[in-house]
Amino acid sequence: MLPEEYSKAITLAGRTKNVDLAAELFSHAIADGIREVCLYNALMSTYMYNGLTQKAISVFEVLKQHAKCKPTIVSYNILLSVFGRSMLVDHMETTLQAINDSELSYTITTYNTAIAAYLTAWMWDEMEGMYQSMLEGPVKPDAGTLLLMLRGYAYSNNLEKMEKTYEQVREMVNNRQSTLIHAMICAYTKSSHPDRVKRVEGLMKLIPDDDYKPWLTVLLIRMYAQESMIEAMEGLISKAFQRHVIVTTAGIMRSIISNYFRNNAVDRLAGFIRQAEYAGWRLLRSLYHCKMVMYGQQNRLEEMHGVLDEMENFRFSRTRKTFLIMYKAYYNTGRRPEAAMVIGMMWKHGYGNDEDAFVL
Question: I need a surface site. Which of 87, 104, 276, 295 has the fewest CB within 10 A?
Fold first, then answer.
């Protein structure tokens, strides 16, 4: 067998996760007196793809000590990938310096591998620095580079550069890069971009109906809640209930509550709470407090008082704020005896102070 044939066989064994066969083929080649760098590269790749980081590094060290067979830029690129996948950024940067100190030159794979590693480690300045060095050097970015940068800009919420990069690879992303579309949508939902709803809805059209992501639905619920778009928010909430998605984040629930409050939609809030209780969503005392406040504002005092029983059913004790909500509702509707009674209840539960005594 020729060295290239051994190399392809080792690579194929590695891709099929047959690491022992790959190592055996490598040993056969060495026993036959074949010591080409492509064999070492193939075995390094095998170990890398199968998560055997230390073995991949050991192969490189053996190659580096070989008298007649020295590492090529391909060898270094594989080593960079090994360190990048393991988030060993310091080791990766040491390898980059070793390339700089040698007679070898960076290839597009060198740059893309380093950018991917910085992206994985969320080292945005280093990622940008590597990209800028490409723009200034002889090796120019390819489509793979732009896709990596688009992902990095989306993850780092750098919307301006994300949008500029997206324009360069729009067709490629729209056709088959759904994960990047998800990342861009996520970036918009977390931003204060004035047209974020329009941008998000345009990107959502590119996602197939069967590509449902619960986490994405939750982010969209929060966005529509923040924008006070109650119908759009409730449509996604209904879909989440149907798909048995469970929201456990307090911030999402508070956004939903605030949307109902701004729209003065207490009956809709009450319906949402009933569904959330049944579906196992995160319940907060503020859910019930908000409903009490809104009932009080509409002079629906019996319903407001009934919320106390709902709170007890879910083991939410009454706090000072609970009593103050009730006091304000009774006081503002001219029902002073009930308001005074609430103050008395506050003292009974240990929530009274001198200010409350003056009210009495």
Answer: 87
Question: Domain ranges in the chain?
Answer: 1-71, 284-360
CA distances from 326 to 16, 254, 306 (A): 68, 21, 11
Task: Give this prediction's pTM.
Answer: 0.85
Question: For residue 353, what pLDDT is reported?
Answer: 67
pLDDT tens string 260-301: 999 999 999 999 999 999 999 999 999 999 999 999 999 999
Distance, CA of 322 to CA of 229 (rounded, Å): 28
Tokens of residue 343, six digits: 């103050």
Q: Are 122 and 87 in contact (CB under 8 A)?
A: no
Total count of residues recorded for the chain: 360
Mean pLDDT over residues 136-149, rounded? 95
Return the pLDDT at 352: 67
Q: Over range 158-180, report the average pLDDT.
A: 92
- pLDDT for 360 equals 42
Contact 37, 63 (CB under 8 A): yes
Burial class (CB in 10 A: 0-12, 13-18, 19+), 283: middle
Model confidence at 204, pLDDT cuts 50, 70, 90, reads very high
Q: For tokens 């690491």, what's the residue?
A: 19
Query: Are 292 and 322 spatial neighbours (Cβ–Cβ below 8 Å)?
Result: yes
Distance CA 288, CA 306 (A): 10
Half-sphere exposure of 165 (CA within 13 A, CB side): 25
The first and second tokens of residue 6, run together, are: 């051994």
> How many Cβ atoms are within 10 Å of 48's Cβ, its own excluded?
23
pLDDT value, residue 67: 63
DSSP-assigned letter for residue 67: S
Spatial separation of the C-alpha atoms in residues 217 and 69, rounded to whole Å: 54
CA neighbor of 319 nearest in space, from 298, 288, 294, 296? 288
Token pair 């009450």 is found at 270
Residue 297 CA to residue 294 CA, distance in Å, equals 5
